[in-house]
TrEMBL record:
Protein name according to UniProt: aspartyl aminopeptidase
Gene3D superfamilies documented for this protein: Aminopeptidase i, Domain 2, Zn peptidases
GO biological process, one term: proteolysis
First-tier enzyme category under EC: hydrolase
Catalysed reactions, as listed in the record: Release of an N-terminal aspartate or glutamate from a peptide, with a preference for aspartate
Organism: Tilletiaria anomala (strain ATCC 24038 / CBS 436.72 / UBC 951)
Pfam families: Peptidase_M18 (PF02127)
Keyword annotations of the record: Aminopeptidase, Hydrolase, Metal-binding, Metalloprotease, Protease, Zinc
Length: 497
């Protein structure tokens, strides 16, 4: 095997894939935005947007490229091989769009001693101490009336880029023990401040005016301005180019306004929010597009290449747009039950009763999340022989208790692909005396799809600011491209059942 090509060098140049990731993550403060950014990349590469609620009959063609979104926060994209038949395999890279953060509560208006504050709810298992003393803003989606008549409505994305909120620490002089043992109450001590009393007076006047304007909603009906600070709604209306009265509802998250960056000696590191798991979303999208750059890429293929970017992994994946939903399985079922234009079938072959089950048996999923890199300050937290290094390549994640879905056959096939791609692989297992996290892998394997769990190594997982290697994004993209291009051949090399 040829020597692994080094992706960083002594001049400190930034690997191209790392630079592209910085742009991706800076545009993606929420799962809604990450989905929109991936969708934009796909459309620019010639993928056709589909609607789940519509029939796909006569739309799917051999060699065609398609995608759809669900809930604006999850996405499936796929490309159809020219020789695909009902019962053929679907080869998928799966990831998740969400990360731990604070969500603004349905009633967020709070005020205390001249401070305007916003009530927030924790989402996922975040390192919440890292959110203190950061320049925070808001992003998400807003339901907006298309006109003052309020007879039609649209869900619009919003991304306010200037610092608006802050969760300040208590000074060390008033909390002497905090220097050695920082403790806080996640309900009482994480309320971000939004403004001061002078703005609060304007806030009050705006609230009164807006409540008068909403009198037609009915006596006692809570209005947006009664639930949220009117100045917050004014910021949203300005960003969206609408009137406050047109704002009907929203899902908003806090995020850190500091851009992602490459740093360290020789630019060895990426310092970024949401590495877990927008790094995998980025690499999966790039790899699917990259695997199709050759016009003849699908001419000999009898399978479907796909990515599935799910939401809500950080809170259990149980939503309609999470990994435990029917999003991927229903896509496979649809594709094996309709004739694909340009592929000649034998009679009603697409109606064959076991086509879906045969397709699942021939399918394969790479569950791509992030992995724990070895932390030099906490060596006792790692098993001696499983200490992944930054810029050492993707990590195979294994757990006998099935917190990860990797098996000997699935890891073997991944190693064969890595050899073709000339990509190094590492191993991770958690210590026996520590609990193990999980991924979408075990959830997706319930469908019957063979699954392997992998991830790029990183430090400070679930912090507001995480760290990974700047060379690792390109390694993962190359591995995913090899998966899409060569899995049909590699899969035939191993006999299991």
């Amino acid at each position: 095997m040829t020597a692994i090509r080094q992706l960083s060098n002594s001049t400190g140049s930034i690997p191209a894939a790392a630079s592209r990731f910085l742009r991706y993550v800076d545009k993606s403060p929420t799962p809604f935005h990450a989905t929109a950014v991936s969708a934009d990349m796909l459309e620019k590469a010639g993928f056709i947007r589909l609607q789940e609620a519509e029939s796909w009959q006569d739309l799917i063609e051999a060699g065609g490229r398609y995608f759809f979104t669900r809930n604006q926060s999850a996405l499936v994209a796929f490309a159809v091989g020219h020789h695909f038949r009902p019962g053929g395999g679907v080869h998928v890279v799966g990831a998740h769009t969400d990360s731990p953060n604070f969500h603004i509560k349905p009633i967020s208006k709070r005020a205390k001693e001249g401070y305007m504050q916003c009530s927030v709810e924790t989402y996922g298992g975040g390192l919440w101490s890292t959110w203190f003393d950061r320049d925070l803003s808001i992003a998400g989606r807003v339901i907006v009336a298309d006109s003052h008549a309020q007879t039609s409505f649209t869900s619009k994305l919003v991304h306010i880029k200037e610092p608006l909120l802050r969760i300040p620490n208590l000074a060390i002089h008033l909390n002497r023990g905090a220097g050695d043992n920082f403790q806080f109450n996640v309900e009482d001590n994480t309320l971000p401040i939004l403004g001061l009393s002078a703005a609060a007076e304007l806030n009050k006047e705006s609230a009164n005016a807006s409540d008068d304007a909403h009198v037609n909603q009915g006596v006692g009906t809570p209005t947006m301005t009664s639930k949220h600070h009117p100045v917050l709604l004014q910021l949203l209306s300005k960003e969206l180019g609408c009137d406050v009265e047109q704002i009907q509802d929203f899902e908003l998250s806090l995020y850190d306004t500091q851009p992602a960056a490459v740093g360290g000696v020789d630019n060895a590191f990426i310092f970024s929010p949401r590495l877990d798991n927008q790094m995998s979303c980025f690499c999966a999208t790039e790899a699917l597009i990259g695997s199709l750059k050759n016009p003849s890429a699908l001419h000999k293929s009898s399978s479907i290449r796909a990515i599935a970017l799910f939401d809500n992994e950080e809170v259990g994946s149980v939503s309609t747009h999470g990994a435990e939903s029917n999003m991927l399985a229903s896509t496979v079922r649809r594709l094996v039950s309709i004739p694909v234009k340009g592929i000649r079938l034998h009679g009603d072959e697409h109606l064959e009763a076991t086509a879906y089950e045969r397709a699942i048996a021939q399918s394969f999923l790479i569950s791509s999340d992030m992995a724990h890199a070895f932390h030099p300050n906490y060596p006792s937290s790692y098993e001696n022989d499983h200490r992944p290094k930054l810029n050492g390549g993707p990590v195979i994640k294994t757990n006998a208790k099935q917190r990860y879905a990797s098996t000997a056959p699935t890891t073997f096939l991944l190693r064969r692909l890595a050899k073709i791609a000339n990509v190094p692989l590492q191993e991770f297992e958690v210590r026996n005396d520590m609990p193990c996290g999980s991924t979408i892998g075990p959830m997706m394997s319930k469908t019957g799809i063979r699954t392997v769990d992998i991830g790029n190594p990183q430090l400070a997982m679930h912090s507001i600011r995480e760290t990974c290697g700047s060379a690792d994004p390109e390694y993962k993209i190359r591995l995913f491209e090899a998966f899409f291009e060569h899995f049909e051949t590699v899969d035939k090399e191993l006999k299991v059942d």
